[in-house]
Amino acid sequence: MREISRKVAEIQNEGLGEHRLRDLNDEINKLLRERWHWERRIVELGGPNYNRHGAKMTDLEGNIVDVPNTSGRGPGYRYFGAAKKLPGVRELFEKPPELRKRRTRYDIYKRIDASYYGYRDEEDGVLEGLERSAEGAMRRRSGGGWRSGGGRRGRGRRRLLALELRRRCCLRRRRGREGEGEGVCGACSFA
User: Fold this and answer.
1) Do you know which InterPro entries this protein is assigned to (predicted)?
2) DSSP β-bridge partners for residue 184
3) How many domains does the chain have?
4) Are 17 and 25 in contact (CB under 8 A)?
5) Phi, psi at residue 114, to the nearest 5°?
6) pTM, to two decimals
């Protein structure tokens, strides 16, 4: 334990040079691995478990981090003191920038509700006023062709629709599109 603490104190000096810092860090990790093996053997023999309360790896700000094993030096490799600032090691502690996640079709449809399909358009009353004015304009354009159904629903609308279809058919004829025969569309009873 004394040897580990002495080397950890020595590695705090940033002026040692890159090679000396890497060697010291390797020696510290080797001693820690040996200590871990001894502590595991103590537990096997029935002694207390010291690994349960072991120290965690921290970054430069002191936050506890999980460092991925990209160096190939085995599991649990740690960096101490000035070794955290070495080139290639600093990138291990930096968080990768978050890539913008593509939205899936499920996420897009999850946000769609009834208002998207227009089911709540009547709630504010604006659409009702527009429909009323458009209906009045259609009645004026029909020129008296709108008749009340006389108590039966839909009859007046059907009458207006029939008049509109006849008018369109007659317009086609006037433009010279009746070359296929008279009354081709079936909506016009004029021959």
Assistant:
1) Helix_hairpin_bin_sf, Isy1, Isy1_sf
2) none
3) 1
4) no
5) -65, -30
6) 0.42
